[in-house]
Amino acid sequence: MDVRVSTRDVQQFDGDAVAVGVFSDDTELQGPAAALDEAMAGVLTRLRASGEITGAASEVTLLHTLGKIEPERVAVIGLGRRDRFTAEVVRRAAAIACRALRKAGAKRVGLALAWAESGVNLAQAARAATEGALLGLYSFSRYKSAKTGDNTASSASGASGANGKTKEIESITILGRGREPVLRSAVERGLILAESTNFARDLGNEPPNVLTPTELAERARRMAAEVGLNCEVYGPDWMREQGMGALLGVAQGSAEEPRFIVLEYRGGHAEEPGPAFVGKGITFDSGGISIKPAEGMQAMKMDMCGAAAVIGAMRAIALLKPAINVTGIVPTTENMVGGKAYRPGDILRASNGKTIEIVNTDAEGRLILADALSYAVKQHYAPLVDAATLTGAMVVALGHVRAGIFSNDETVQRAVISASEIAGERLWPMPMDPEYEEQIQSEVADVRQTGGRPAGSITAAKIISRFVDDQPWAHLDIAGVNDRSSKNAESDAGATGFGVRTFVELATLLAERNGGK
Ligand code: BES
Ligand code: ZN
Ligand code: ZN
Does 432 lie in the same domain as 292? Predict the structure, then answer.
């Protein structure tokens, strides 16, 4: 996708479609919408007066310009109330506009959605418009054969027209009022963030027969070579040397070998370890001996979305180059039911020496995180932040809107939440009272693997916390937000890439707090 910037007026844009926004509570059209209205003999004002355009959030009105201006089409996007305008509104508007215009057959699209407005500055708006466009247009179609008679075989967008020709937008121009260098660098940042998020979405959407632990490591390695990151990939022998009995325990039921991936970005002082981002990489979670019900089990190909978020974030960090050292850590394995599979009743020893009493082999995520976090502690990384599709209970608690954040440290928790707000990914703080630990006491080992049904997400976080020592740590339970079950006006169904942008903004924030190099 070709993304450009222009500070020209909207009516001078020379592509084939342009999108503008309208607020619901403005009595008169403003900004680019007003300029377009004037160029088009007041048609927007008419539609507004007749109530066909209300400006309600997510409203789309497509108009033909009949030669009044260069672009053939205009998309008028509702932005909702002016006092509720945020970068997220811009992101959504851009996504909706691009999807609607792609469907209409537009190739060269201008987005006049990037202008400074109540609390959103030009850079934020431009960045959000870029992100919205690229995230909205993303599709995963690698495994769809081209339709008969369609020899364009390129990644079909799911937007094939009646004539069988694939409809794809070729270029996006972010039209903004203001200084061009500001616009350009904001768009560049948005582009890196969106492409890295889409990279993570690809990993999540790949089928589990293709994206095995070995293949996940291979993709991380390839990406690392492309953007200039160090990448180490370790196998079972190394894990045995490290004493990673929890990760190996989960892996032993699978015919696929586990991998331990370490991605290293060096932008800070040589002697400073910097933060580590850790992602759960279960490439398929059958539940193991405590097998899951058949219905919906296919969704468990996405049980590596924490890993995808970390790998995607490391890509963006390598390209954005914040002045800090960052390490991405991914323990990856399948959770299967082979003859050597671990069982309820087993006791596993993690690499920090602590023993875990297994009660349900479907609670495998915390086990592989136990070894990954123990490793991160040994390497003195701080803070530690993990992302994991960890518990069904998280979906029950917060649904598909927010991810839960659990932490042992107020400062880190606040930093991660700030980062998520900049990123446009929503988190909600969950309690970590000491009383919850009673549920994970074991009679036979140092800790019980699960705490039963009550507060299942919290007890899971409590178990992980036993493996971070006293290092400042935050855990994001992204079960529920990692995957969209159906497509909508804004996005296709499938992996969302949740977490990529929060990790990147966190690295940026921590670099700023460090005062740079
Ligand atoms: N990967 C699942 C959690 C999950 C569930 C993610 C639904 C996304 C959607 C995890 O490994 C799991 O199965 N957890 C169990 C834990 C229980 C056995 C303590 C769960 O949540 O049921
Ligand atoms: Zn599981
Ligand atoms: Zn799982």
Answer: yes
User: Which tokens go with 270?
Assistant: 């040589």
Determine which one of 366, 402, 462, 466 is catalytic. 366
Task: Identify residues whose C-beta is under 5 A from ligand 2, the ion.
Answer: 285, 362, 364
Domain membership flag for residue 182: no
Tell me if 61 CB under 6 Å of ligand 1.
no
| Residue 122 within any structural domain of the chain | yes
Average pLDDT, integer, range 385-400: 98
**Is residue 70 in some structural domain?**
yes
Asked if residues 382 and 411 have their Cβ atoms less than 8 Å apart, the reply is: no
Residue 153 confidence (pLDDT): 43
Residue reference for tokens 């994206």: 211
* Inter-residue contact 111 to 125 (CB < 8 Å): no
Q: Ligand 1 in contact with 344 (CB < 6 A)?
A: no
pLDDT tens across 119-142, in order?
899 999 999 999 999 999 999 999
Q: Judge if 379 and 468 occupy the same domain.
A: yes
Cβ of 362 below 6 Å from ligand 1: yes
Catalytic status, residue 487: no
Record the tokens describing residue 494, joined without a space. 């499938």
Q: Dihedral sign, CA of 432, 481, 93, 60?
A: negative
Among 319, 501, 507, 477, smallest CA distance to 415 is for: 507
pLDDT, tens digit (0-9, with 9 covering 90-100), for 210-251: 999 999 999 999 999 999 999 999 999 999 999 999 999 999
344 neighbors 361 (Cβ within 8 angstroms): yes
- Answering whether pTM is above 0.70, one says yes
**Letter for the amino acid at 452?**
G
- Do 325 and 416 sit in the same domain of this protein? yes
